[in-house]
Write a structure and sequence with these properties.
Two copies of one chain form a homodimer. By secondary structure, chain A is α+β, with helices and mostly antiparallel strands. Chain A contains six helices and six strands. Chain A has two domains: 98 residues, Winged helix-like DNA-binding domain superfamily/Winged helix DNA-binding domain (Arc Repressor Mutant, subunit A, Orthogonal Bundle), CATH 1.10.10.10; 60 residues, 2-Layer Sandwich (Dna Ligase, domain 1). The N terminus of chain A is likely disordered. Chain A binds a DNA duplex (30 and 30 nucleotides) through helix 4.
Chain lengths: 168, 168
DNA sequence: AATTAATTGAAAATTATTCTCAATTAGTTT
DNA sequence: AAACTAATTGAGAATAATTTTCAATTAATT
């Protein structure tokens, strides 16, 4: 089961390490084959990294982590495979401003994102009230809701402090 | 094909050249001064272009359009000014995938979109309650909210009926 | 084991955007 | 209106993220 840890007052989401999926090599192979691709060591390691590692990682970060376990890995392979995974919806890509894209294994449980416009930090949240209101809006216009994208953008606490420090 | 239902008698942004705002040089100067900047020919021409031209233009497109009226304009000036306008919220930046950012003069009235996944029909809506809840979420995580994207996807009434007709 | 088509790493290429810097210009002061 | 000064400019170099190229390697098939 996917377990989303929503720490109240979590200060530094960059550092949170969580295991959201409990996937084995068998699952990874299945995912790769479902996309009509060949099973390779590098693809398995990338998936392993996504499943076990920090949540919203950039391609560069995946490359660096993966490079430890598998030093002959090239970053082009990481980019290529992340793109494929995104196209097939196994991975969700979050983009903000000109900052590097961040990736996560598509969670089974829905959540939305709160992204820092300055440093790209991402906080996940769930809000049942908002979900309900969305349903109401859809109903009002005669729509049967299938999905939605809600991305909030703002300045995180750290970046707010940094700005003030510079001003002084 | 795709039908856009717009609250205030606006036309389809994709197809028509529309004047969302009816702004004069006086307004442009005011905008520039409000940002604490000097009024220059290039800034006026850029604003004019944004106000009169197509909606959702890229920086390159702005540069090309502007270049006709004002050939000595450099693209760095366009980028620089668009950034300033965005920072000051006179312009809204929309980013999609790795594609170049698109810009539009920030509409006076904020709205979100409800899109039919079958026929592409778009309904614009406003919901103050959702907005408020978004603020609350941001606050809870220590963020200072700057903007957001909310896109609802579903099946519109017509398409629901069409599906049922086919099934029968 | 032989075959072949996909995959890989390394480096080059590309794309969007930002930065640098000397020359110009807007707005102010005289 | 001329002088002043700090902001703005254009051109091109620089940067950063991502994609492409291509020859060598490897997974899956025969």
């Amino acid at each position: 089961m996917s377990e989303v840890i929503l720490a109240e007052g979590l200060q530094n989401p960059e550092e949170q390490v969580l295991k959201r999926e409990n996937l084995t090599e068998k699952d990874f192979k299945k995912i790769i084959r479902q996309m009509g691709l060949k099973v390779t060591q590098q693809r398995l390691v990338i998936l392993e990294t996504l499943a076990e590692g920090r949540v919203h990682v950039t391609a560069q970060e995946v490359f660096e982590i993966v490079n430890d376990k598998f030093p002959e890995m090239g970053f082009a392979t990481v980019y290529r495979f992340l793109r494929k995974l995104t196209e097939n919806n196994f991975v969700t890509e979050v983009r903000m401003g000109g900052l590097p894209a961040r990736y996560e294994l598509t969670p089974k449980r829905h959540h939305d994102h709160l992204t820092c416009v300055q440093c790209g930090k991402i906080v996940e949240f769930e809000n049942q009230e908002i979900e309900k209101l969305q349903e109401q809006v859809a109903k009002k216009f005669g729509f049967e809701l299938t999905n939605h994208v809600l991305e909030l953008y703002g300045k995180c606490r750290d970046c707010q402090l940094n700005s003030k420090r510079k001003e002084a």
